Amino acid sequence: MNGVGALIEQLGLLHNRTQETPLFNPVFQLGLDLSRQLEGGELDLAAIEALVAELECESMQSRASRLRRLVAPVAIVDNRRELEMSLTEREFPAFRARWERPQLHAVFTAHPTFLLTPDQSAAVADAASSSADIGLNACVTGAERPAITLKYEHGRAMRAISHAQDARDAIVSEMLEHAAAQWPEQWHELEPLPFRFASWVGYDMDGRTDIKWYDSIGFRLGEKAERLARYAASLAAIDANHPLLNDLRGALAYSEARAADFAEDLASPDALSSAANRLTADDPHKLLSLTPLIDALEAEAREAADERAIALKTLAAAMRADGLGMGWIHFRVNSSQLHNAIRRRIDPDNTLDLASRGAMAALREILAQVQPLRSNFAALAIESSTAIRQFLAMAQILAHVDSDAPIRMLIAECEQPSTILAALYFAKLFGIDDKVDVSPLFETESALEHGGRFLDALCAEESYQAYVRRRGRLAIQTGFSDAGRFVGQIPASLAIERLQGRLSEAMVANGLTDVAALIFNTHGESMGRGAHPDSFEDRLTWPLSPWAKRRFLRAGITLEPEVSFQGGDGYLFFATPELARATLTRIAELRPAETDLDAPVDPFYRRTDLSLDFYRAIRSHQRKHLESQTYSRALTAFGLGLLNPTGSRVSRRQSDIAADRGMNLRQIRAIPHNAILQQLGYPVNVIAGVGSAADGNYEELAALLTESARGRQLVRLVRSSNALASIKTVAAFGELFNSAYWASRPYRGTESHLSDACEALAEYLTTDDRTGVFRRLASRLRVDALKLHRLLALIPNENPLDDRETVRRTIGVAQAIRLALLQHMFLRAVSIPAFSRANDISRDDVMEMVFTLRIDDALAQLRRAYPTHFPQITDFDVNAPSDYPDSSGEGYATIARDYIDPIERAYALCLRLSTAIANEFGAHG
Fold first, then answer.
1. Residue 205 has what pLDDT?
2. For residue 600, what are the contacts with CB-CB under 8 A and spacing of at least 6?
3. Cα(660)–Cα(677) distance, rounded to whole angstroms?
4. Calpha distance 629→616 (Å, rounded)
5. Could you tell me which residues are beta bridge partners of residue 522?
6. Burial degree of 373 (CB within 10 A; 0-12, 13-18, 19+)
7. For residue 29, which of 430, 21, 655 has the smallest C-alpha distance?
8. What is the pLDDT of residues 375-428, one digit of tens each?
9. CA angle centred on 781, ends 775 and 782, rounded to 5°
10. Which of 79, 241, 287, 787 is most buried, judged by most C-beta within 10 A?
């Protein structure tokens, strides 16, 4: 064995043996071959680590190549040229209409996808930012992972946004330069606003109790200070002696001081009172609106030479877009939190169904009668309701931090109009309804199924109509992660598309065509969570299709598309100035807020006799998986032990050892759910059901998918996902728990030194269900996959991958090495002596921890049972003599060296392989 290349070749030879026996598993066999070498001394963990490092390096090169491919070209000079070529408007009104409204709102979220370390992210981004060959410059292996705290996530988000702001400024400057040359008499009228940026990092309270309300205020003040510093730097670059610099620098110093106040622990009334009084007091540098500065910059630009005028207008455009912060902010709560809050007002006895007509009538009544109340930080401090606390926090931000920038209130698991009316009530109660956009989130199966009726009812409410007209926009949010988890990614995307169409109908039916529709499509960076991998155009049009956009634009409704760039994976698009510029230039070229209104009807929407049945069949197939104990048990077989920690938010509820066996999918959030599918080797929630849905109608369905642009896009997603999938890998994991395998492994005397350990494992696993579970799942997937391959054979491949088998084999090698490491851990765990100084934990407890990959817990228990450091009599300076103890004492250094430490090292290598596999999939989760 000379490295990964030799293992790839060996895996290829093993694959050939499947012609002899269809049940032969080349991935498991390679894992067994490696395991025998490791247990026999031909390999050691240092040699395995070298293989892991090689796979890490290759995966980071793959990640960098994928990133560059999506946004290419990446050179600044090339994107200047590309932007200039896209400026094709001949008339000033058309040019102005294109650039004075956002083509896209980009939201930087704190989803737990911080898989790569900062050094690894930098290496991937730097390699992708250059046109040079991607080689070892993309590789950082074995990097130590930082603690992923909320502060860490916030810092990474602000870094990405700052790059996005710089790229936007460059685009605006070049656009203004073009306009000045084309329309010298009119260009000063332009108020460019091509992109908006936002973040909910530090403001998302859904499912979190670790974010205190004053943390959110502190983050917002810190963002204000950071943005003021950037504004001041931009203005100083134009004119080092500009008179407005005094205003900006004074406001900056004030904001930094207030941010420092709210960075302290404000749990005590005295500490809070002191900080609050300094923030709420009048101060000449308490800048709450940029409007006077924007007006002054625009007035100066009208009298300045073009070069200076362009720079001034670019700065004014940035201020107009971002306000007194790094971007707009999104607060987020769960609908149940709002329900609990509103019951105090309309149902103190908890007898009213909030979905009932009676509840709606009560909400209409209190909305009509509500009078705004003043509030302060003391009211915020004593409020116990999470939802009301959010509204109070927003009120304080609008009163004392930034009075211009609106705030989004996202409501998760929102399934009834009364929830939105409750939110409107609290917005009115605290006098902020003119600055807060309340946005329901549609992501559950129920919400997607009944969302059309929800929107019809909501848009018919007079109070809601008056509210959105005052705001000038109607906002909704769709969630691809949870929707994809519960109904499958393809049915979820099609259901969301249908919901978007229903929104346009509801707005038309209720006379709301005079307000904009802001649609926030929240998707991740992986295929399983809604990111189409084939091109940036597919990425933008998969969650908001041309069909959906035409429904709004033909009705005369202004469309404001919004997407998320989630966590560390999403921030890679803005990790360097070059990538940020390339990303925004592609968006500017593709113009996602627009579409061809005269395009012919896509047959996918005309032939609903085929497409609707196709959708329903895939959804039904996905539901069977989700409801299946087989699927649930397979996904939870290792708990979350195959995954690295990737965020500050807990991935699931804590449980004890016994609970891990009964762990269900509802305990696991969408990102780890999808990440586990990647690690097991088959993205079920993307691929499964597509083949079965075509059964009996292959030719006609293939013809439809070939003729339809939407159908071809769907097929591209399926092909990209299938190119990384391996049912053999799924099956291989089950054999780890096969009692017969362990009993037979040393049977011929080839590994007699493992006889006792294998016998113990075989006996322990006689009642384990996981082998059967994985075999049943693999069988179901295989039947569906055969039908999928039959369908795909009838559809032209638009993007054949030359290196498809190499990538699959590379992933297969990584999986085989991990199988060898897992066997090493099992063998070491079962070989540890049964007795110890602290004999209060059973062998079975430790084994169950190891089998579910709760390795940190297992190691803690083992080190407590077998300590290598404990008190010695020589540690004490006492005068009286002692003959006891009469031995040197029990030492467990050998046990630690031979058993405990290898388990720890092997598991660390497993997690590094998890990173490599995720990189091949293009994202974590």
1. 73
2. none
3. 18
4. 22
5. 479
6. exposed
7. 21
8. 999 999 999 999 999 999 999 999 999 999 999 999 999 999 999 999 999 999
9. 85
10. 79
Contact present, 413 and 336 (Cβ < 8 Å): yes
**Nearest residue to 574 (alpha-carbon basis) of 99, 236, 159:** 159
Specify the pLDDT at position 94. Answer: 97
Grouping H, G, I as helix, E, B as strand and the rest as coil, residue 836 is coil
Q: Which two tokens stand for residue 392?
A: 């109070």
Q: How many CA atoms are closer than 13 Å to the CA of 865, on its beta-carbon side?
A: 21
Other Cβ atoms closer than 10 A to 612: 14
What is the C-alpha separation between 333 and 449, in angstroms, rounded?
Answer: 22
Tokens 């992708």 map to which residue?
128
Phi, psi of 436 (to 5 degrees): -115, 130
Residue with tokens 């590309």: 82
Confirm if 329 and 220 have CB atoms less than 8 A apart: yes
Q: Which two tokens stand for residue 468?
A: 């959105």
Paired strand residues for 652: 668
- State residue 662's pLDDT score: 55
Phi, psi of 330, rounded to the nearest 5 degrees:
-120, 120
Length of the chain: 925
Pairing state between β 195-199 and 328-334: parallel
**Tell me: the pLDDT tens digits for 333-376?**
999 999 999 998 998 888 888 888 989 999 999 999 999 999 99
Q: Residue 760 is inside which H or E element, if any?
A: helix 755-764
Contact, 411 vs 419, CB < 8 A?
yes
> Strand 559-566 to strand 473-479: parallel, antiparallel, or no bridges (unpaired)?
unpaired
Q: Give the count of alpha carbons within 13 A of 600, CB side only.
A: 7
Q: Give this prediction's pTM.
A: 0.95
Helical pair 244-262 and 269-280, crossing angle rounded to 10 deg:
170
3-state secondary structure 599-639: CCCCHHHHCHHHHHHHHHHHHHHHHHHHHCHHHHHHHCCCC
C-alpha dihedral, 687 to 691 to 693 to 695, nearest 10°: -170
Rounded to whole angstroms, how far apart are CA atoms 435 and 565? Answer: 24
Closest CA relative to residue 741, chosen from 765, 724, 718:
765
Give the residue ranges of the chain where pLDDT is below 50: 653-657, 837, 889
Pair 221, 401: CB distance under 8 Å = yes
346-359 burial, b at 16+ Cβ within 10 Å, e below that, comes to bbeeeebebeeeeb
In the numeric block, the tokens 């091509």 are attached to 194
Pairing of β 436-442 and β 516-522 = unpaired
- Rounded-to-10 torsion of CA 293, 296, 298, 304: -130
Task: Give the alpha-carbon dihedral of 19, 23, 26, 27, to 10 degrees.
Answer: 150
The contacts of residue 317 (CB under 8 Å, 6+ apart) are 169, 172, 191, 192, 193
Residues 127/581, Cβ–Cβ less than 8 Å = no
- Exposed/middle/buried for 87, CB within 10 Å: 0-12, 13-18, 19+? middle
H or E element that contains 675: helix 670-680
Query: For residue 867, what pLDDT is reported?
Result: 82
How confident is the model at residue 807, as a pLDDT?
94
Q: What is the pLDDT of residue 656?
A: 45
Cα-Cα-Cα-Cα dihedral sign, residues 446, 452, 458, 464: positive
Q: What is the DSSP string of 531-590?
A: ---S-HHHHHHTTS-HHHHHHHHTTT--EEEEEEEEHHHHHGGGSSHHHHHHHHHHHHHH
Pull the structure tokens for residue 587. Answer: 């968006």
SS3 assignment, position 73: coil
Structural tokens at position 604: 């996918």
Strands (E), 324-419: 328-334, 407-412
Q: Are 442 and 478 a contacting pair, CB within 8 Å?
A: yes
Decide if 366 contacts 346 (C-beta within 8 A): yes
Place of tokens 């904001």: 255
Peptide bond into 800 cis (omega under 30): no
Strand partners, 408: 330, 437
Euclidean distance between CA atoms 465 and 869, whole angstroms: 70
